[in-house]
TrEMBL record:
<dbReference type="Pfam" id="PF12780">
    <property type="entry name" value="AAA_8"/>
</dbReference>
<dbReference type="InterPro" id="IPR027417">
    <property type="entry name" value="P-loop_NTPase"/>
</dbReference>
<comment type="similarity">
    <text>Belongs to the dynein heavy chain family.</text>
</comment>
<dbReference type="InterPro" id="IPR024317">
    <property type="entry name" value="Dynein_heavy_chain_D4_dom"/>
</dbReference>
<dbReference type="GO" id="GO:0051959">
    <property type="term" value="F:dynein light intermediate chain binding"/>
</dbReference>
<protein>
    <recommendedName>
        <fullName>Dynein heavy chain AAA module D4 domain-containing protein</fullName>
    </recommendedName>
</protein>
<feature type="domain" description="Dynein heavy chain AAA module D4">
    <location>
        <begin position="1"/>
        <end position="98"/>
    </location>
</feature>
<dbReference type="GO" id="GO:0030286">
    <property type="term" value="C:dynein complex"/>
</dbReference>
<dbReference type="GO" id="GO:0045505">
    <property type="term" value="F:dynein intermediate chain binding"/>
</dbReference>
<dbReference type="GO" id="GO:0007018">
    <property type="term" value="P:microtubule-based movement"/>
</dbReference>
<dbReference type="InterPro" id="IPR026983">
    <property type="entry name" value="DHC"/>
</dbReference>
Amino acid sequence: MTDAQVADEKFLVLINDMLASGEINGLFTDDETTEILASVKNEVRAQGIEDTKENCWRYFIDKVRRNLKIVLCFSPVGATLRVRARRFPALVNCTNID
């Protein structure tokens, strides 16, 4: 994703949350959350962890963090990157800059 493709700055709030915590509040409905918890329950048990709702959710989030890669391409020319880095600190603090 390039910086020119960011049509609405609100999208960067979601990216910032994902980079900082691995979670986006309100992303899944209650039904989807229940399905996710049910799908990882056997994996959690196989790891020797008690399959409580909290442990299953933590396991799912950790699995997402290990496997999800986000590539952002922002131009360093101009003030846009500087402004976004101040407003969304995880864009700098939780990334590898190449």
